[in-house]
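Fold this sequence, please.
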Amino acid sequence: MARVLVVDDSPTETQAFKTMLEQHGHEVLNAENGADGVALARQELPDVVLMDIVMPGLNGFQATRQLTKDPDTKHIPVIIVTTKDQETDRVWGKRQGASGYLVKPVPAPRLMEEIESVMAG
């Protein structure tokens, strides 16, 4: 299956995603903030990134923009997964290069569907 990088500063959210993803056969990497997420994505080149928005330091929008503009990581789809449910946030996420946008809490079937969708292009 896929190597998925989860970038989220909440240990509870990270564990929930890890459990969901591993139950569906995915390998999980994780980073606790945007800067670490960008660095880990550049180092490990995962198949897909799940990106929270609200994090200390480099936020998810900024990290997504860095990944999608970098020649080494721009091929990696980024799915923003956040509690921010405003249309302006969705539009801004897409403008930063995000391939998908999900609002927490995300049911496992919806998460798997989105991962498959963005990986298929």
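The chain has a mean pLDDT of 97. Residues 79 and 90 are 11 Å apart (CA to CA).
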